[in-house]
Amino acid sequence: MKTLFLGLSLIIMSVQLSFAQTSEVEQEIINLSKQKWQWMSDKDVDNLASLFDDKSKFVHMSGTWGKERELEIIKTGSIWYRKATVHDVAVEVSGETAIIWSRITLASNVRGNDVEVEFTVTEVFQKQGTGWKLLALTFSSVRDTHVLEH
Fold this sequence. Notes:
This protein has helices at 2-42, 45-51, 67-76; strands spanning 52-60, 63-66, 79-94, 97-110, 113-128, 131-141. The chain has a six-stranded mixed beta sheet. It contains three helices and six strands. The radius of gyration is 19 Å and the shape is globular. Strand 3 and strand 4 form a beta hairpin. The protein is of the alpha+beta class.
């Protein structure tokens, strides 16, 4: 009986620990995404260059391009991501891959014009070594009533 109790206790503790780890990873991704928005606002291309995978892709309303072009756009201010107000997020982690969906209002300056647009942004991260790399970022234009299901 003691062996059974000990075995069940270990199983329960390991299940709780695995949920705690998933929750910690999800929070890490949420924090990383928020930090990315700040770096984009600050035009901090050095930190962004470290975060973006060399093969990363960025899908905007006007086109799709890779890391170097995205960094150039940010550095020159062709698109200045002034402020991303995050309204809601949903995160899913599968192995070494994390996907975060964020419903945001993005205040930006695009080629000299101030705009404010509602988006759902999909970001795909992959654990590489001890850190995370952004593989993809996609802007989807949505209504302000758009809801993320968790």
